[in-house]
Every structure is written in C-alpha cells, then in structure tokens.
Specification:
The chain is of the alpha/beta class and 231 residues long. Helices cover 37% and strands 16% of the residues. It has an eight-stranded parallel barrel, surrounded by five helices. Strand 7, helix 7 and strand 8 form a beta-alpha-beta unit. It is globular, with a radius of gyration of 16 Å. It is found in: Cytoplasm. Belongs to the CutC family. InterPro entries: CutC-like (IPR005627), CutC-like_dom_sf (IPR036822). It comes from Paenibacillus rhizolycopersici.
C-alpha cells in the first residue's frame, strides 16, 4: 500500500514524512480543492523532505475547462516546478463536453518529461469515467488517476472504483483513490476495490478540519494500518 498525503506548507510536509507518508501532494487553497502553490513553497518543501513531492498545477477553481491564457499559465508553472526539483505534477483539464482535454494534456506533458503525472479529480466530472480512463491510458506519461469513482465519496463508489481498476489492470497507469476515506473505512475499502494507493487530506488533520495542521497521531495510525498490509 502507498499513502499520499496533502501538504499545504513546509511543516505539513515534514510531519507527513515523519509519520509514514510515502508521497506528498503539495497544494494551496485546500478549501477550493487545491490550487498551485507558490514556487518558493515548492522549493522549500522539496528541500525539506526525501519523499516524492507532486505539485498541483491548477490556476483557479472556476472549472476544469481552460482557455489559452490558463494553459499558458500552467505551462509556466510546470517549467518552474520541474526546475524546483519536484518529482511530479498533479493536473487535469476537461472540454466543455466533459471529456479529457487532450490538446491541453499534450501541451502539459510536453513540458513534464521526467516528471510523474497524476490526472486529478477533474476526472470525476467526466461524462463517462471508463472512456476517460481509456483515453488517459493512451498517454504513458500519465502514471496515475486520482479519483473517488465519481462525484460521491470513494466509499460510496466501490463498484465504479473496481471497474476502473479492472480497466487499468496490466497498464502502467495506477488508480489513486481519494476523497471521503477515513481511518475507519479505508481497510474495508481497500479490500473491496483492490487499490494499492490512497490519498488523504482532511481526515488526517486535527479535528478533520482541512485548514488545521496534520495530526501526527492519526497519520501514524493510518500509515501503520496501511503498511501492515504489505507484510
């Protein structure tokens, strides 16, 4: 099992690594679903930890349908993130018809050579998730998809997650399950779906509050629970 934890500052990153996180998703504006953090933050987090740092590339929270100015902005962000030494980016773009925006994706991938690429939960707003996954599988640079199996919390979408896992089976693309998972539900969810990577944010923060600091006790309990499955 692989545990990805949302970090919003350097302190989060250090606490996450110290308490068993395997990878970070670095963002700002957690209450808006995550936006691109400042490049100074990216540089400091990369220096502060040894685990992989994947950085959100999302210029605003209006929608996942982007115009030319948005794509140009994201291209600049990818260049800066790569230069800062991050291990990957977290990105997603849709068309007005709720399909993968392949034109935007190809432009971003052209600048992300050598980086891991996660297609984020824009995926869950697609009109057809299986079709969207098959589209992404045509792009080997895309390593994983962060999804809850639709717009509902992941524990309520087990059949959808299971279907996505079956489609991705045998490919290089991994399903990273997130949104709505808790310490109490994650073991059964993993057993029911077969996912090997999970993503946690508010559930491992103090009081379950997205704006609160990470809770080391919760995080350590979660990481032990997941990593014990590897034994």
């Amino acid at each position: 099992m692989f545990l990805e934890v949302i970090a919003t500052c350097v302190e989060d990153a250090i606490v996450a690594e110290a308490n068993g996180a395997d990878r970070l998703e670095l963002i700002t504006a957690i209450t808006e679903g995550g936006l691109t953090p400042g490049i100074g933050m990216v540089r400091q987090v990369v220096k502060a930890v040894d685990i992989p740092v994947h950085v959100m590339v999302r210029p605003h929270s209006r929608s996942f349908v982007y115009g030319e100015a948005d794509v140009l902005t994201m291209e600049e962000e990818v260049r800066a993130i790569a230069d800062a030494g991050a291990a990957g980016i977290v990105f997603g773009a849709l068309t007005a018809e709720r399909k993968i925006d392949e034109a935007a994706l190809e432009r971003i991938l052209a600048l992300a050579v050598g980086l891991n690429v996660t297609f984020h939960r824009a995926f869950d707003e697609l009109a057809d998730l299986p079709s969207g996954l098959r589209t992404l599988m045509q792009y080997p640079q895309v390593n994983r998809v962060l999804t809850s199996g639709g717009t509902r919390p992941a524990p309520q979408a087990v059949p959808a997650i299971r279907e996505l896992m079956a489609i991705a089976n045998g490919s290089s693309l991994r399903i990273l399950a997130g949104y709505g998972l808790t310490l109490e539900t994650v073991s059964q969810f993993v057993a029911d779906t077969g996912v090997t990577e999970v993503h946690f944010g508010s559930a491992v923060r103090q009081g379950g509050d997205g704006l609160a600091p990470l809770d080391p006790t919760k995080l350590l309990s979660l990481s032990r629970l997941l990593h014990d499955r590897n034994q």
